[in-house]
Amino acid sequence: MTAPGLRTTPTIGDIDGDGTPDILVGATDGYLYAWDLDGQLKPNYPLDLGSPIKSVAALVNLNTDPAAEIIVHTGDSHLHVIDSTGTPLPGWPQDLGGEADTFSRWIIGSSPRVFDLHADGTLQIAIGSTANKVHIFNTDGTTVPNWPAQTGDWVYSSITPVDLTGDNAPEIVAGSGDNQLYAWTADQQLLPGFPVTLDGALIGTVATADLTGNGINDLVATTYAGSIYAIDANGKLLPGWPQHANAAIIATPLIIDVDSDGALDIVAASRDNTLYAYTATGTPIPALTLKANDWIESTPAAGDIDGDGTIELIYATYDGTLNHVDLTTPATPATLAYPSFLGHYVAPTTDDADQDGLLDTYELETFGTLDHTGTDDTDYDGISNYAEWLAGTAPNDANSRFHLQIHCHEDPATQATHFTLNWPTQDDRTYTVYSSAGALGPQATWTQVDSQNLKNGQTMQCTVACPEGTTLFFRVTIETK
Questions:
Q1: Which of 159, 210, 274, 372 has the fewest other C-beta atoms within 10 Å?
Q2: 449 with 464: CB under 8 angstroms?
Q3: SS3 readout for 82-143
């Protein structure tokens, strides 16, 4: 289970559509390696892409088959999108026009970032290049209008899509070898205050989280000069920054709660054999500033790896040692704001960026905007938008109703009366039926009679016996994950 010259993080995903994860990594010999979870090399692997691979591959399903496609940046300055056999998808590869990784000139390569640029439910692929540019492509290989963006030097770092303006759509953040931190709108307009001049080339990817609690994302960037910067959405330094290591920083910083005080902290690894930890205001955390026996070039990772509910911090050193530290911080999304290298992360297109209780793609499809919340009643029919989403009715049509049919029939064998309820279902909902005999309101005693989790298009059917002379009332609840 070895591959020569590994300079990148492996990626886990289902490359052949068999329903089980695979492990994929590119190597400096120009080959792409893939293994099953049992360590067996996958058929057709390694794949020869013809040029060193120093970027992390992204795995995302771009078509209707069950297998993920592979997106990888190679040292001949090409961006590839291939299937598991190595066959390029139509429109690929794309020549980025940059300088090639001859004689190992590249420190690392920018990793492809897959995300929804316009919050319209479609994916785009962003990549930096040694042509001093940030490129954004559609998944068919066409260039997104107004891109690429020009910088003054190679773009080693991966691209960070993040909402800096509060419009629930991503801005594009990237660092360059010209010592500049850039932030653009989706149509490639520089944000006010950007670019920001730092003291050295930016190699690691820019991390992002709300460090001040004002509801707006901030940026954390590191430089080859060994400095760590925390910068707000207006391009201004946050109080207490920058801080400085004693050697170059190549790794991406983390933003996590390292000391379990309920506030986010910043972790940065340096070639001075040190893993640094600071509060969001730049105060060092000595107990969690860790010394190692060799350079720490790769990005650490944080998460609950042993299932005890608290964070473990993992970091590797240049001498081949893998280290771990048990923290006391509970492992939650809030405490793990930016827990590892996310440069290749496939951002979901069906999320809730505005946190209003409705999936953004559903809002866009239904209303055309993100201005309607889950608690609103857009069609004034007395039912909230969220409840209508659960039920599968149209929240912008007061005549759209949840249709439940009840049939009364007699059991020929027992002559007992039965009611059968049925209705069409929505995807991945749990429907629970309750009945109450002879009473409604506070006096009602509701008894569960059935519960099923069904997929879209299936019909929920529930049959309930009704004792003679009894009036039954029914209630249906709908829940989703």
A1: 210
A2: yes
A3: ECCCCCECCCCCEECCCCCCHHHCCCCCCCCEEECCCCCCCCEEEEECCCCEEEEEECCCCE
Taking residues 64-86, report their average pLDDT: 91
Q: Is 95:134 a contact under the CB 8 Å cutoff?
A: no
Q: Radius of gyration over alpha carbons of the chain, in Å?
A: 27
pLDDT tens, residue by residue, 20-73: 889 999 998 889 999 998 889 999 899 999 999 999 999 988 887 888 899 999
What are the backbone dihedrals phi and psi of residue 426, each rounded to the nearest 5 degrees, phi first?
-105, 165
Report yes or no on whether pTM surpasses 0.85: no
DSSP H or E stretch at residue 150 = strand 149-150
**C-alpha torsion 294→297→300→306, nearest 10:** -50
Render pLDDT for 175-191 as a digit per residue (tens, 0 to 9): 999 999 999 999 999 99
Give the residue ranges of DSSP H helices in 6-136.
none
Strand partners for 72: 80
Question: Sheet containing 274-279: which strands, arranged edge to edge?
Answer: 254-256, 265-269, 274-279, 290-291
Total length of the chain: 481
- What mean pLDDT value characterizes the chain? 87
Q: Which residue in this structure is represented by tokens 């005080």? A: 261
Yes or no: say if 97 and 124 are a contact pair by the CB < 8 Å rule.
Answer: no
Assess contact for 218 and 239: CB atoms under 8 A: no
The backbone torsions φ and ψ at residue 102, rounded to the nearest 5 degrees and listed phi first, read -85, 140
The dihedral built from the CA positions of residue 118, 119, 125 and 130, taken in this order, carries a sign that is positive
Q: Which residues contact 101 (CB under 8 A, 6 or more apart)?
A: 51, 52, 54, 75, 76, 109
DSSP 190: B
* Token pair of 155 as six digits: 């773009």
